[in-house]
């Protein structure tokens, strides 16, 4: 097997795994009303098809990252494709909402295995000269998944092919399994002797369950107290989790290492900022186009592609220009462009043409295209090779939580001020702007101190 073929197959596996796992985070969102009628159930129960997947992914991703360091990224990736493919097949055949939810939970575990290994496969197995190009492709897949999911789901529903929302994953999972199997017999990986921290895993699971359930209920006024109790409980568990992990030799999260590495903490804070910002950018514009500009669904669907178009295009451009030595600079540039896009969007008024909104979204996407691949590469470079799996999943976990938080804050604002969309956008993008400024300030201070 040539080095070029090996790099190509690893990039395919990593990119496809990330695309499938992020695609299925949102592909079922547009089908909730349909599933409610199809299975004669309530909206709250149908929503567990989303919550079950999200929770399973969030809870499983850290322990699977540890296992990928111990047994090898290719083996865990292989397991991920098998679980994801079989559960997708199962979901399509489900004849009750209970079985569908069960299938989605298994699918979430498979998605966690795929996300846990995607970045680490590239940083540990792809040759140096192709590594940054491969990471840029990973950035494209992360950006494409959340956008393609709802669009693809809507098309399949309109064709009365709801089962293909799940079955469409199967052929791609089979390709992933074949490529993985081929590589498993020909590539040797460097592994570690890490053991799984069972207490840390249990506490992390409890913390994330409380946090994600609390965030999901935040936008429902009659459950606001329950939501706040769950979020506060998750924070308290998080504090206990931190002190336990700090004293544990084989911690699920290397708290000691993070505490001594201010650069990685800075990179992770930037990841949180970008995740929160992406949630706001994808959540609010459709409401603006439809309610303030009175455009149709089809036109809106086309105009909101500004952000993903910019992200996809400039992820590839930045990947070709960056040889791996410009990650900090590109992160700086990316956050700076995102800052400009948010200022531009905050100045936007309904008297301006709706094309300016698409332009603002495109500028944001350009910033994301520069930032995301460089951010991933920076985090992975700051971690020893035997910890690449754990580091990669920590990056994905904090970004997923940040996306959930951004979506919850945005949805809550929409519910609080349903008749003042302009105020909602000002608040949402204003909070995001503050986070970006804090990230840039943190980045500058971190660079100065080092």
UniProtKB/TrEMBL annotation:
This is MFS transporter. Residues 10-450 form the Major facilitator superfamily (MFS) profile domain. Keywords: Cell membrane, Membrane, Transmembrane, Transmembrane helix, Transport. It holds the Pfam family MFS_1. It is a multi-pass membrane protein. PANTHER family: BLR6921 PROTEIN (PTHR42718:SF46), MAJOR FACILITATOR SUPERFAMILY MULTIDRUG TRANSPORTER MFSC (PTHR42718). Gene3D superfamilies: MFS general substrate transporter like domains (1.20.1250.20), Multidrug resistance protein D (1.20.1720.10). CDD domains: MFS_MMR_MDR_like. InterPro entries: MFS (IPR011701), MFS_dom (IPR020846), MFS_trans_sf (IPR036259). It comes from the Bacteria. It is found in: Cell membrane. The chain crosses the membrane at residues 7-32, 44-66, 78-102, 108-127, 134-158, 164-184, 196-218, 224-244, 264-284, 296-317, 329-348, 354-376, 423-440. Its main location: membrane. SUPFAM superfamilies: MFS general substrate transporter (SSF103473).
């Amino acid at each position: 097997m040539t080095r070029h073929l090996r790099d190509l197959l690893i990039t395919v596996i990593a990119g496809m795994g990330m695309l499938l796992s992020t695609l299925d985070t949102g592909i079922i969102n547009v089908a909730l009303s349909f599933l409610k009628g199809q299975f004669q159930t309530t909206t709250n129960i149908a929503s567990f098809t989303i919550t079950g997947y999200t929770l399973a992914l969030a809870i499983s991703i850290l322990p699977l990252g540890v296992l990928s360091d111990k047994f090898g990224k290719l083996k865990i990736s292989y397991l991920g494709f098998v679980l994801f493919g079989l559960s997708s097949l199962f979901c399509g055949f489900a004849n009750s909402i209970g079985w569908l939810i069960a299938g989605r939970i298994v699918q979430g575990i498979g998605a966690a295995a795929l996300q846990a290994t995607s970045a680490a496969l590239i940083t540990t197995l792809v040759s140096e000269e192709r590594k940054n190009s491969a990471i840029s492709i990973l950035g494209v897949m992360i950006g494409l998944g959340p956008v393609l999911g709802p669009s693809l789901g809507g098309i399949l529903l309109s064709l009365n092919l709801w089962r293909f929302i799940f079955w469409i994953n199967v052929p791609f999972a089979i390709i992933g399994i074949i490529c993985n199997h081929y590589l498993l017999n020909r590539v040797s990986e460097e592994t570690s002797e890490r053991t799984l921290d069972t207490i840390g895993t249990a506490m992390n699971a409890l913390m994330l369950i409380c946090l994600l359930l609390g965030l999901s209920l935040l936008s429902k006024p009659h459950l606001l107290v329950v939501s706040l109790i769950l979020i506060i409980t998750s924070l308290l568990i998080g504090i206990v989790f931190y002190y336990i992990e700090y004293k544990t030799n084989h911690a699920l999260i290397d708290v000691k290492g993070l505490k001594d590495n201010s650069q990685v903490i800075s990179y992770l804070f930037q990841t949180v900022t970008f995740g929160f910002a992406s949630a706001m950018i994808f959540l609010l514009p459709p409401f603006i186009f439809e309610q303030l500009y009175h455009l149709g669904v089809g036109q809106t669907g086309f105009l909101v592609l500004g952000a993903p178009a910019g992200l996809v295009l400039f992820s590839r451009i930045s990947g070709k220009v960056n040889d791996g030595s410009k990650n900090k600079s590109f992160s700086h540039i990316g956050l700076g462009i995102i800052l400009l896009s948010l200022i531009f969007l905050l100045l936007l008024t309904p008297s301006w043409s709706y094309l300016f909104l698409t332009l603002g979204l495109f500028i944001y996407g350009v910033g994301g295209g520069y930032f995301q691949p460089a951010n991933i590469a920076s985090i992975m470079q700051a971690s020893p090779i035997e910890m690449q799996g754990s580091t990669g999943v920590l990056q994905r976990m904090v970004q997923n939580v940040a996306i959930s938080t951004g979506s919850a804050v945005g949805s809550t604002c929409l519910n609080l001020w349903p008749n003042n969309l302009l105020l909602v956008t000002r608040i949402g993008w204003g909070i995001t702007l503050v986070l970006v400024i804090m990230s840039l300030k943190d980045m500058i201070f971190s660079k100065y101190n080092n």
